[in-house]
Design a protein that fits this description.
Blueprint lengths: L43 E2 L1 E3 L2 E3 L6 E6 L4 E7 L3 H16 L1 H4 L2 H17 L1 H12 L3 H23 L11 E3 L2 E5 L5 H15 L2 E5 L6 H12 L7 E3 L4 H9 L5 E5 L2 H11 L5 E5 L5 E4 L5 H12 L12 E5 H16 L19 H16 L3 E4 L14 E4 L6 H4 L6 E7 L2 H9 L6 E5 L3 H10 L4 E4 L18 E2 L4 H6 L2 E3 L1
Parallel strand pairs: 1-5, 7-8, 7-10, 8-9, 10-11, 12-13, 12-17, 13-16, 15-16, 17-18
Antiparallel strand pairs: 2-3, 4-5, 6-20, 11-19, 14-15
The protein binds NADP nicotinamide-adenine-dinucleotide phosphate and magnesium ion (MG).
NADP nicotinamide-adenine-dinucleotide phosphate binds next to helix 8 and helix 9.
Length: about 500
Amino acid sequence: MPPLASPPPKSSPRSGRPRPELIFGDLWPYDPAPETADPKLKPRYDLFIDGKFVPARGGKYFDTINPATEKKLAEVALAGPADVDAAYQAARRAADGVWGRMAGRERAKYLFRIARLLQDRAREFAVAETLNGGKPIKESRDFDVPMAAAHFFYHAGWADKLEYVAPGRRVAPLGVVGQVIPWNFPLLMLAWKIAPALAMGNTVVLKPAETTPITALKLAEIFQDAGLPPGVVNLVTGAGATGAAVMAHPIAAKVAFTGSTEVGKIIMRSLAGTDKKMTMELGGKAANIIFDDAPINQAVEGVVNGIFFNQGHVCCAGSRLLVHEPVAEAVIAKLKQRLRVLRVGDPLDKNTDVGAINSREQLNKIRHLVDVGVKEGAELYQAPCPLPARGFFFRPTLLTGVTQSHRVAREEIFGPVLSILTFRTVDEAVEKANNTAFGLSAGVWTDKGSRILKMSTELKAGVVWANTFNKFDPASPFGGYKESGFGREGGRQGILDYAKLV
Ligand code: NAP
Ligand code: MG
């Protein structure tokens, strides 16, 4: 950027509002540009069972907050075992009755309708997602909500073509499916779970994460508007105990879980010996690998996108950077430069790159692991940006000089923290990238097509992106190796995971 002739004015010429503190002489701050669509929140949300909103039998509610302000957004019913059971009974009736018997082409119409209604209300849903989850509005507006609609569209397209799910075999629905999802993509994870299950003719009982129930409950309004038959989708809100009840219920023919490896293991242990089918989408510790022939600016942008744009709240986040020694110094210098101009703050502001951490608990976990990294000898660099006085925020952080034995190289931090290691040879890059208990995703940055092919066969990861990162498509199956789980979501493989071969 050329130097400015005169320093930027202290207040905005348009609004007259004082500008935020300047960090660098040559950086013009943007005026705030908050998204103003009304999220249409209700003060209180009940459970969604058998097509109706009903209070929990225990009469208890819990608060759900905006992590960027710590203010209460709404109160949400706390489902106990009796509510979970009622949800399963409703799902069972719908599976045995109308939904299980309906022709695929008719089910498709409901899925199309849900997708269209979600598109109609996209801005409202994006604001609700950002308010409840803390992610920047440009993420929820440009990624979460359109991708959720895309999943319903895509699976609507499958519902009348199920004979192609397993060519040569006949497929049938499993029955009722229990699903539990995390807080990082509340609406999108719900779409990943519900759309294929419904297309195949199953009915579901789903529990959203405790901290982010709102968009799921708003989508229940769309299910009603779409005329979805009662009991096809049932939503039970609550914390871990509610999730455990959803996973353990005897009616569930299959359980699908997305969340931490730790909780995934608890669920697998508790279901061992039952005949429930399972899908587990668990944690990750993805490596972005930059070779010395890579387009460096593009690679740096991809790495920043992969770990900072969603506060690192992404299971497949590129939380490790493996950089080829000849370019390590240049890459780290460019990363620091890029971090200095990331905009951290109000998630509703359209200029914000890095929003709020989802909860105080998660913020404390990130702080703790970064402290551990520093104690173990990593060198810390943090963006010098101002942070809002309230709410849960964490500065985009680089940890350099990390070695494979450091906890920050092995454990999932799930925050805007990048651990940087170096390598000298292709084999060393593969060895270091695979030296983790996880295997969800990886990124390779190089000019050589042959190297991309070699790396993608040798990396033990469900997805390998080449010269890009965090790209998704409903037609492309997603899932992990090793402790990142098993089963696939998306594509033909994803829908097959909700089918019985007959
Ligand atoms: P989490 O603590 O494992 O929670 C996930 C969900 O499980 C939440 O709804 C949670 O309820 C519920 N839960 C907690 N204890 C349970 C139990 N004993 N039985 C059944 N359900 C239980 O994970 P998180 O912290 O919300 O999410 C972050 C994790 O999800 C990260 O590890 C991330 O990598 C992973 N993730 C993976 C993928 C993927 O596709 N592989 C995608 C997104 C996220 P509460 O909300 O009340 O805790
Ligand atoms: Mg949790």
